[in-house]
Amino acid sequence: MITMNVIPTNVWIGPNSSILVEPNSIFFGSVQVDKLNGSESGLQLFGFYTSPRVNVVNWSESRLVSLSPRSSKGWPYYLNERASLNISYNVKPEGCSVRLAVDEGWLILCLCYCLSFSYVNKNSFTGSGMIQVNISNSGSYHLAVTNPNLKDVEVELDIDVTAVVYDTKKAFYKCNFSNSECTFNTIPFVLTSPAPRQVRILYELH
User: Fold this and answer.
1) pTM above 0.85, yes or no
2) How large is the average pLDDT for residues 79-89?
3) Domain map (residue ranges) of the chain
4) Which end of the chain is more exposed for a tag (fewer CB within 10 A), N or C?
5) DSSP letters along 42-60, please?
């Protein structure tokens, strides 16, 4: 039960990402983080005396997407500032276009670098090629592919991620959500997850 002196915030994290949260100890006395995805494992929380440094890591994934007419599919990502996505695509059958976008909330990021592709209109692609998206603000993003055609299309995606993650080696507190929650005094903390997860952060006011 959430009382009047508790402020809840829901956060998506992952895949292969980390998020830094720095509660203000002037306003908040303690913090509780609840795992909202049932028994799924991999989510971890690390507490620090001061904000940790960051590292750059690279990882990749491939997706084969089948889209019926006028349909779309998408996937969530949490990305920190200075991260980037290199997305190679191949659209079949020949001559069909798809719309490909990375959204932050309602903001569609500029697909700022394109190679070897023909386009129908902004953010619409046919054939094969690559786009690069540079992240200037830390936050939750959504990669979406939309089929505007009147027939089925298939899209192959190879996604190379240059991620900015927080170094957890010097953490003095660690919680693996064995009881589905972590509770602690107000300190900077980092959440990490290998897969998309949702958590609820409860800030208790003084």
Assistant:
1) no
2) 94
3) 6-53+167-205, 55-164
4) N
5) --EEEE-SSPPPEEEEEEE
